[in-house]
Amino acid sequence: MLDLEVVPERSLGNEQWEFALGMPLAQAISILQKHCRIIKNVQVLYSEQTPLSHDLILNLTQDGIKLLFDATNQRLKVIEVYDLSKVKLKYCGVHFNSQAIAPTIEQIDQSFGATHPGVYNAAEQLFHLNFRGLSFSFQLDSWNEAPKYEIPHGAMVKRMHIYTGNNLQETRAPAMPLACFLGNIYAECVDVLRDRAGPLGLKLRLLTAGCGPGGMTDAKVRSLERSIYFGDSCQDVLGALGSPHKVFYKSEDKMKIHSPSPHKQVPSKCNDYFFNYFTLGVDILFDSTSHLVKKFVLHTNYPGHYNFNIYHRCDFKIPLVIKKEGTDSQTEDCILTTYSKWDQIQELLGHPMEKPVVLHRSSSANNTNPFGSTFCFGLQRMIFEVMQNNHIASVTLYGAPRTTSQARPESSSSSH
Fold it and tell me: Alpha helices, DSSP H only, in 68-215?
């Protein structure tokens, strides 16, 4: 049985690990994978058709704990303990719930100090006792006439919630805590830079936890802006973003058959390679001969996609160039985001002329993909990978063909 420390408005955990409010989904899953011998039978709950309308939930069925993640930013919003008989809980090092200690109203008063009268919810037949960042719900099955303010003696805690602020219904996932950075950089948002013809590069607003000489005591989250462009060298990208988490060499180009060039059947001597930045949700493809950027891939990390939980969600914005019928002028008043759906995009950009490329993903060891195929559509030097629920799984951006002698566009953030 797990023995966990409750920290109101912050976390639930022990000496080895901690689920902290604001923690990214991928980190929570990595804790569960690391401790899979102790924490078993975890369910991932999400809405397949409307993934943004419901929280993304990790349900630790064996331990009676649910972790609720905000569907949009995928950070931990609420920690719910829904079965207190399956877990030991302590506050400031002292147990208030274990096999020997029942979580009665008297025990909660003693451990936390009663500050407010309880709030009775007739529909749920539950009394809620609220502290800042922590609430307890008491079961009232055996009382016919529930008192309106005072929780009856001996009432037992049925559920406990940890969250930020004073109101569980209105709580939001907080910013990512310092302890979750672990030396990585994260992208707060990614803007696609473009001209009339198509994408030119990316402007990334990055978050990093910089430490001063005093270590974590001086640490604070810093925000920086970096821009990278098609035609940038490996050194440019390493200077702007630091080392990638992984370098991946392409063994074959599955999309090559769809390219118009006649030499597509000629095998190349060396392979193009990707820099994978998992915490940014971005891949950058370099040409094997020139070592210059030729492609960016932005990942949305929707549950139900084959690559789910490999990348953090990339919160991108792509300005679209819309041709107005009957006029020569173009307007750029429309922004496509991570949360746009394919039918909305088609209404703006028009339907692609060619049929989509169907993408069947499967690992080499296991030829099944439980999530089904995705469809790839090309428009304005971008390839949109569309899931069966009409959401975008990834966007691949291509640069205009250009020579190495062309100057790199200067950006306003190049003074760093």
Answer: 105-112
